[in-house]
Design brief:
Blueprint (H helix, E strand, L loop, with lengths): L6 H6 L3 E9 L2 E10 L2 E11 L6 H14 L6 E5 L6 E6 L5 H11 L12 E7 L5 E8 H14 L5 E3 L1 H8 L1 H4 L6 E4 L10 E6 L6 E5 L3 H12 L28 H18 L24 H83 L5 E7 L3 E8 L4 H8 L3 E6 L4 E2 L4 E9 L4
Parallel strand pairs: 1-4, 4-8
Antiparallel strand pairs: 1-2, 2-3, 5-7, 6-7, 9-10, 10-11, 12-13, 13-16, 14-16, 15-16
Helix pairs in contact: 2-4, 5-8
C-alpha cells in the first residue's frame, strides 16, 4: 500500500485501531492502541509467557481472550519477527518508477542474502519516503511458514509479519511526518545483562538502519553512527522516545521508563497496524493470509473524509463566487475612474511637450552665451589691423577666415587659448593687400 504524503489528508486520516505483537523474552508482548487525530490512546497491554515452548493453541487462547476483552478481535494485528530472523537491505534505484523498481528488486533478491541458492526466500520491498532508496526485508520462507502456522494454530488472524525497525519507521511518522536530522536509538535500553543490543537509526546516507550487536550500548551506538555517517548521540535514547507519545493510558498500566522500553516494539507495531492506510510496514506475510483488518475502523475516516470533501467543495465554490463579485466591483471602479485617467494622461502628454520646449529654450540660451564667448575670444586673438572675413561655428568646431600680418602665429595663439584646441590651417597662406590671408579650423572646448 502506498503511503499518503499530503499533510492535510494525513491529518484527517489519523484514525484507526490496531494491535501489536512482539516476540521477545521467550513470550509475546501484546499492545492495543487506538489512534485518534488528537494522539494515540494506549488501551491495554499483556505479556504471554512461554509462547516458544507451549502449544500454540494454548497461548493463542490467552491472546484471543485478551483481544476479546478489549473488543480488539476485529483490529488489524501486526506481529514482529525476532530481529535475527530478518535481513534488511537498502537498494538505491534512482530514476525508476515504483513499478520498474519493484521489478529491479525482484531481479536482485538472490544477491541480497547469504543463504544458498536452493533456499526459498520471502521478501518485501518499499520505497523510503520520496527518496530513491528502497528497503528490502528478507527471511527464509521456512521460518515465515513456521510463524504463519503458529499463529494459524493459535487462531490469531494477522495483518502482517514485520520487524521492529520497519514498524518504528512508519509509527514515528503517523503524527510527526518526516523527521528532520538523524536519529539513533536503542530498541530496549534497559535490557538485562548479556542481552543483544538492537539499534535503530535514520540518516541521510542510511534512511533506515537496524542492526544487532553483542556489545554494550555505547559501543553499539558508536559502531552504528560510523555506519550511518553521523554523530553518535551524547546520551543513549530509547526507541519509545521517537514514537508518538500517548495521550491517555489505563491507570493500572506501568508507565516507568523500563516498562516503556519493553513495550516500545509492540507499541510501534500497534500504531503501524492501526494506521496502515497511512503507510504499511515491510510485510513478509503472504498476501493470501493477510487478514484481520476491520472495515468498521474505516467508517470514521470515510465520514471525516466526506465532510472534508464537502467543506473543500464549499470553499472552492465560495471562492469562485467571491472572485466573481470582486471582479465585478473592479470593473465598475475601472469604468468610473476611466475619464479621470484619460484627463491625467492628457495632462502628462502636455507636461512632456512643455518640458521639451523648456529644454530647447534653455539649450538655446546656453548656446548663445557660449557662441558669444567664442566670438569675443577670436576677436582678442586677432590683433589689429587684422580682420575676419568669415566666422562660423557649430558648437564643436570653429572656422575662421580673414587677413592678418603674421598668420603663422595664429595657430600657437589659438591653441594657447582655453577655448580652442587642435588648430590647423585648411588652405595655404597667401599674401593679401595688407597682410596674409588665412583660413583655419579649430575645435571648441566644452562649455565651462
Amino acid at each position: 500500500m502506498a503511503a499518503i504524503r499530503q499533510p492535510l489528508l494525513r491529518k484527517a486520516l489519523r484514525f484507526g485501531s490496531g494491535a501489536g505483537l512482539s516476540m521477545a523474552d521467550g513470550g509475546i508482548r501484546a499492545v492495543i492502541v487506538k489512534v485518534r487525530p488528537t494522539g494515540p490512546v494506549l488501551v491495554a497491554e499483556t505479556f504471554i509467557e512461554g509462547s516458544s515452548t507451549r502449544p500454540a493453541a494454548e497461548w493463542g487462547g490467552e491472546l484471543q481472550r485478551f483481544l476479546a476483552a478489549h473488543e480488539a478481535l476485529p483490529y488489524a494485528v501486526l506481529a514482529l519477527l525476532p530481529r535475527e530472523e530478518v535481513l534488511l537491505r537498502l537498494v538505491s534505484l534512482p530514476g525508476l518508477t515504483d513499478e520498474d523498481a519493484t521489478a529491479a528488486v525482484r531481479l536482485q533478491v538472490d544477491a541480497l542474502h547469504p543463504w544458498g541458492e536452493d533456499e526459498e526466500i520471502s521478501y518485501d520491498a518499499q520505497r523510503l519516503g520520496g527518496t530513491s532508496t528502497w528497503a528490502v526485508a528478507l527471511a527464509r520462507k521456512e521460518r515465515i511458514d513456521y510463524y504463519t502456522d503458529q499463529f494459524t494454530e493459535a487462531g490469531v488472524k494477522l495483518a502482517g509479519l514485520s520487524f521492529t525497525a520497519s514498524a518504528a519507521y512508519h509509527a514515528s511518522r503517523v503524527f510527526d511526518g518526516v523527521p528532520a536530522g538523524s536519529r539513533l536509538v536503542v530498541e530496549r535500553l534497559f535490557a538485562g545483562p548479556g542481552a543483544t543490543t538492537e539499534v535503530y537509526g535514520e540518516s541521510e546516507s542510511k534512511p533506515l538502519f537496524s542492526a544487532q550487536f553483542d556489545t554494550g550500548v555505547e559501543q553499539a551506538l558508536g559502531l552504528s553512527a560510523a555506519e550511518m555517517r553521523t554523530e553518535a548521540p551524547a546520551e543513549a535514547a530509547d526507541l519509545f522516545t521517537i514514537l508518538p507519545q500517548t495521550v491517555s493510558a489505563p491507570d493500572s498500566m506501568d508507565l516507568s521508563d523500563q516498562a516503556r522500553s519493553r513495550r516500545a516494539p509492540a507499541y510501534a507495531a500497534a500504531l503501524a497496524a492501526g494506521c496502515m492506510h497511512l503507510g504499511e510496514p515491510l510485510n513478509l506475510l503472504p498476501d493470501a493470509l493477510r487478514r484481520g483488518k476491520s472495515k468498521a475502523m474505516y467508517v470514521p475516516t470515510i465520514v471525516l473524509g466526506t465532510l472534508l470533501c464537502i467543506a473543500a467543495l464549499g470553499l472552492a465554490l465560495e471562492g469562485g463566487w467571491l472572485d466573481g463579485r470582486h471582479q465585478e466591483r473592479l470593473q465598475a471602479e475601472t469604468r468610473r475612474l476611466e475619464p479621470v485617467a484619460k484627463r491625467v494622461e492628457a495632462i502628462d502628454r502636455q507636461t512632456a511637450v512643455l518640458a521639451e520646449r523648456i529644454g530647447q529654450i534653455d539649450g538655446l540660451r546656453k548656446r548663445a552665451g557660449a557662441d558669444l564667448e567664442v566670438v569675443t575670444e577670436v576677436n582678442r586673438l586677432l590683433p589689429p589691423p587684422a580682420f575676419v572675413q568669415q566666422l562660423s561655428l557649430d558648437g564643436q568646431t570653429v572656422f575662421v577666415a580673414g587677413e592678418v600680418e603674421n598668420a603663422e602665429s595664429l595657430m600657437k595663439a589659438f591653441d594657447a587659448s582655453p577655448l580652442f584646441r587642435e588648430t590647423e590651417f585648411t588652405m595655404p597662406l597667401n599674401r593679401g593687400q595688407s597682410g596674409e590671408t588665412f583660413r583655419l579650423r579649430t575645435k571648441q572646448e566644452a562649455a565651462r
